[in-house]
Amino acid sequence: MYTYARQYNQKIETDVLVVGSGSSGAAAAIAAGIKGADVMLIERYGFMGGISTQVLDTFYGFYTPGKKPRKVVGGVPDMIVDQLKQRKKAFERPNTYGAGTGVTYDPETLKYIWEQTALNSGVKLLYHTMVIDAIHEKDRVVGIVAATKKGLIRINANVIIDASGDADVAAAAGVEYEGEADGPVQAMTTTFRLINVHTKRAKKVTKERLHELMQKAAKTGKYNLPRKEGSVHVTPFEGVMATNMVRVSDIDGTDPEQLTRAEIEGREQAFEYARFLRDYVPGYKNADISSLSTQIGIRESRRIFGEYRLTRDDVMSARKFDDAIGQCGAPMEDHHSGSDTKWQYLPEGETYQIPYRCLIPKQMNGLLVVGRCVSADHDAHASVRNMAQCMTMGQAAGVAAALSTRERKNARELSPSFLQEQLLDIGAILE
C-alpha cells in the first residue's frame, strides 16, 4: 500500500476528488462545484463523458416508458441536455424497444459541453491520468495514487467519488464487490456510425423487419451475426445513422487480456454488421462506417456492496425509500450471452427510488461510489445503469461530498432530508 511513498512526482490536496468523468463522474464534479467545494476530476482519456461520448449517443432513463411518459430526472442532467438542444445537437425520440423516450445527441458536441460546464462550475480537470491504487487508513480512504506521463502522483481528498465504472478505487481499498467470477455479467458492445445512408428509406425499415433480415442473412451462413436483433437509429445529421448491434459475451471487463480480445472481436463484428446492412437493408447500399466507439462499451463489471443493495424486487415493486436521491422507471434490460435481449418492465407509469445508501460502501468512509458499479444486484443493475440515472447518482454524490466537507462529517452521517433539500435546490426530481 505504501511502496510509492518516495516516488511521487507531485502531491495534490483537494476537498473532493472525482475519479472518472463518465455520466456519473461528470455530474458529480459539476454538482460538487456548484455547491462550492474545491473539486478535482481525473480522467484517463483526453476528454470528458465516458460512455456518453465514447460509445453511445442517446441518454435513456429521463422518462418513464408507456403511454404517458413522465420526466423523472432533473438538475445537472437538464443543464447538459438544454445546452445540447440550444445548439440543435439533440432531440427526443422513442426507444426501439419501448424503454421510454431517449435523448439522442452529437457526442462530439457533448464532449465540449461536459468540459465547459465543469470548468464553469470551478472543477479542476486533469486528463491522461489513471488511478492505480487507493490509500486508506483503517476504515477511511484518504487518497489515491495515479499514473501520468510524468510519473506517479498522489491526490489526497476529504471525499473521493469513485466514478471509474469498474469500482477501481473501491476495489483497491478492499471494498467487497461482485464481478464476473460471481455470476454472469452483461455482454459488451462496439457501436459504430454509418455515413452515406439514404435516411428516408432507412427510416421506413421497422424493428421487426430489420430483425427478420438479420435472421435471413445469418441463415445463409455467409454472415457472422451473434446478435439477431439490435437497433439502428437517426442522428442529428442527415445521412448518418448510429447502431447498437454488436455483442461480445462472457468477458471480464477488469482483465486486460480479455478486454483486448473483446476490442478486436467488437470491431470485427462491427464491419460484419455494416456489410449485412449494405447487402440486405433498404437505404444502406452506399453506407460505410465513419466511426467506431472509442472503446468497447462495458455494461457491467464490478458491483460494490453498499449500506443498501438495490434488488430486483425493489425495481419490479416500484419501491420507495426515505433516503431517495432520485428515481428510475427504466425496464431491466439484460444483454445476456444469447442472440436476444431480455426486457422486463415496471408497472405502467411507475418508478422506483434510488437510495443514497447504495452509494456508500460498507465499512469504508471517505468514499462514495456511483454509476454502473453502484450497490445493486445483477437484475436491478440492468435497470439503474442507464446514463440518466448515472447522472442522478453522480449529482447526489457530488452534493453529498460538498456537504460532507462543509459540515465536517462523514458522508454516511449526513441527514437524508438535508441532502434531499440540497438536491431539490439544484433541480433534482426525487418523486
Question: Could you walk me through the main structural features you see in this protein, from its secondary elements to its overall organization?
Answer:
The structure is a single chain. With 431 residues, this protein is α+β, with helices and mostly antiparallel strands. It folds into 2 domains: 10-184 and 301-425, FAD/NAD(P)-binding domain; 192-292. 31% of the residues lie in helices and 22% in strands. Strands 1, 2, 6, 7, 8, 9 and 20 form a 7-stranded mixed beta sheet that branches. A 4-stranded antiparallel beta sheet has the order 12-13-11-14, covered by helices on one side. It is globular and about 65 Å long. The mean pLDDT is 95.
Please compute the radius of gyration using only Cα atoms. 21 Å
DSSP strand tally: 20
The helix-and-strand class reads alpha+beta
Shape: globular
Helix content: 25-40%
- Could you give the distance between the termini? 43 Å
Per DSSP, the total helix count is 12
Q: What do we call the CATH topology of the largest domain? A: FAD/NAD(P)-binding domain
Content of β-strand: 15-25%
Largest sheet: 7 strands, mixed
What's the average pLDDT?
Answer: 95
CATH superfamily of the largest domain: FAD/NAD(P)-binding domain
CATH architecture of the largest domain: 3-Layer(bba) Sandwich
Number of domains: 2
CATH top level of the largest domain is Alpha Beta
Uncertain segments of ≥5 residues (pLDDT<50)?
A: none
